[in-house]
Amino acid sequence: MRLYLINPSNPLVSMVRVKESRWNRYRVWKPLSLMVLAGLSPPEWDITIVDENVGVPDYPAMPRPDLVGITAFTSQANRAYEVAACFRRLGVPVVMGGIHATMCVDEVTERVDSVVTGEAEGIWRRVLEDARDGTLQCRYDGGLAEMHAVRPARHDLLTGRYAFGAIQTTRGCPMNCTFCSVTAFNGAHYRQRSIPDVVREFQSIREKYVLVVDDNLIGTRPEHIARAKDLFRAMAAANLRKEWITQATINFADDEEVLTLAASAGCAGVFIGFESPAPEGLSELGKKFNLLKGRDLSASVRRIQRHHIPVVGSFIIGLDIDRPGIGRRTAEMACLYGVDHLNALFLTPLPGTRLWDQVTSEGRLALDTFPEDWKYYTLTFPVARYRHLSQNEIIEEMIACDRHFYATTRILGRVCRTVWGRRRPLISLLGSLSYRSNLSLNRKAYADFRHEFAHRRAASESGRGYSSSPE
Ligand code: B12
Ligand code: SF4
After folding, report:
1. Does 175 contact ligand 2 (Cβ within 6 A)?
2. What is the per-residue pLDDT across 113-133, written as a single tens digit (0 to 9) for each?
3. How far is the CA of 239 from the centre of ligand 2 (A)?
4. Rounded Cα–Cα distance for residues 6 and 361 (Å)
5. Does 177 sit in the ligand 2 pocket, CB within 6 Å?
6. What is the spatial distance between Cα 238 and Cα 234, in angstroms, rounded to a whole number?
7. Quick one: which of 142, 195, 305, 391 could link to 470 by a disulfide (CB 3.0–4.6 Å)?
8. Is the pLDDT of residue 334 over 90?
9. Measuring CA to CA, which residue among 105, 131, 149, 45 is closest to residue 96?
10. With b meaning 16 or more CB within 10 Å and e meaning fewer, what string describes 419-456?
11. In this predicted model, what pLDDT tens digit does every residue of 263-293 receive, in sequence order?
C-alpha cells in the first residue's frame, strides 16, 4: 500500500529553493507532524513525505498512491485544498488532519474524503485500516494522546535538504493566551514524553542542529521544571553532540540550574514571547505570566545570555491598546530588554482561539473571503480591523519597528555584545542580515497586499465581487 504524506506550501510565506543555495537550508523547517504520522503507520505502508516548501512535484506523474494524507496550518489550507482536489481527480482518497482541520472541520469536510481532528496517535492506525478495506469514514477524532503512545518520528524519511532536525518532548499549555491555538488544540494539561524515549529519538536524528518544537520546553510548575532538568541531565549524559533551539516562557531565566543544564545539553537559542511592551497589553492578551513577581525582563534576558544562549524576542502589534507609535516603541523595548533578534508579528485571529471569537463577534475580520484568504493568516499581514490603526497605519508601524531594531548601527552593536558575551557572533550577524533581507521581501509583500485590497475595494464599490474592506 502506498501512502503520500504532504505538507502544502504557502508561496506568500516562502518557497525555499534549497538546490539554489545551501543557505536556504536554514530557512526551511521539517514538517514533524508527517514524520510522526509515518512513525505511527504499520510497515505494510510504503510512505513518501512531500514537503512542498522544498519543491512541488508533478503529482500526476508520480506512482499512484492508495491514500494521501495532508497536514495544514490555517495559512496552508488553501493550497491543501488544491492538492486534495488534484488527487481526488485521480480517484485517490484524501485524508486531512492537523490544526486547521480540527478548528475548521466543516470547511475541510467539504473538500476531502476524510477529516481527522485532534492528535493522531489514538486513531491513525484505524484510519489506515479503513482506507485499506475501502471503508474510510468522513470523520475521525483522535482527541488528546497519551504521551506513551507518541512513537518516535521517522527521521529517516526526510533527509538531506534541511539544516535542522525536529523533535517534540511536551504538549499542551495551561496559559491559554487569547491569540494562541495551543491550549485549544493540545489542551491545558502539560504532558511530557518519557525522558528515555526523547533521548533515544534525539539519537536517531542525523542533523547536528535540532528544533525542539515544544511551545514551552520547561513548563511553568515546579514539577515541570524538575522534569526539564532531568531531561537536560539525560541529554548531557548521552553526549548527543547536538545544538538545539526551542521556545520557552520567560521563567526559563528564573532558575540558574535550568540554564546551566540546558546549556550543557546543547541549548543554542530560545524563542520567548514578550508580546507587548505595555503591562495592559499583556493583560489584554492573557499573558499575565510575564508580569508576575514584578519581573525585570532585561535582567531575565541577561541571565539567559550569560549562559551563551541567544534570545529571540517575539512581539505582537495591533492590540486594542496599540496606537500610532507602537512600532517604534516595541523596537525600543526589544532593544532595552537586550534580545538578540526581534520577531514582530501582526495580531491575527486564528480559528479556535479566544481572539477569533472576540474579533468575529465584533465583525472585525478584514479578510474573510475563505478559504482563499487563509493564505494571509501568516501573522505577517494585517488581517483584522485594528482598534486605533488603519491597515496602512499598522503596516507602517511594522516597518518602523523592524527598521529601528535592524538599523545597521544597532545590528553592529548587538554583534559586538555577542563577541563580548561569547554568544556566537557570526550566527548573530548572519541571523540579523537574514532578518533584514526578509524585511525587504516583507515590503514587497505589503505592496502586493495593498494592491490586492485596493482592487477588492474598487470591485466592492462598483457592486461586484468582494464584500470585505480592510480599511
Ligand atoms: C514547529 C512550528 C512551526 C514551524 C513549522 C514546521 C513545519 N513545517 O511543520 C515554523 C517555525 C516554520 C512555523 C511557522 C508558522 N507557524 Co507554527 N508552529 C509550530 C509548533 C510550535 C509545533 C508544530 C509541531 O511540529 N508539532 C508537533 C506535531 C507532532 O504536532 P502537530 O503538528 O499538531 O501534529 C499532530 C496532529 O495535529 C495530527 N496531525 C497533523 N497533521 C496531520 C495530518 C493528518 C493526515 C492526520 C491524520 C493527522 C495530522 O497528528 C499529529 C500527531 O498527533 C506549533 C504549535 C504546536 N504545539 O503545534 C506552531 C503552530 C502550528 N504555528 C502556528 C502559526 C500561526 C505559524 C505561522 C502562520 C506564523 C508564525 N510565524 O509562527 C507560520 C506558518 C508558516 C506557513 N508555512 O504558513 C500556529 C498555527 C495555528 C493555525 N490555526 O494555523 C501554531 C499552532 C502555534 C500557535 N501559537 O497557535 N511553525
Ligand atoms: S502563547 Fe505560549 S504561553 Fe501562551 S498559550 Fe500559547 S504556548 Fe502557552
Report:
1. yes
2. 999 999 999 999 999 999 999
3. 31
4. 34
5. yes
6. 6
7. 391
8. yes
9. 105
10. eebebbbebbbebbeebbebeeebeebbeebeeebeeb
11. 999 999 999 999 999 999 999 999 877 876 6
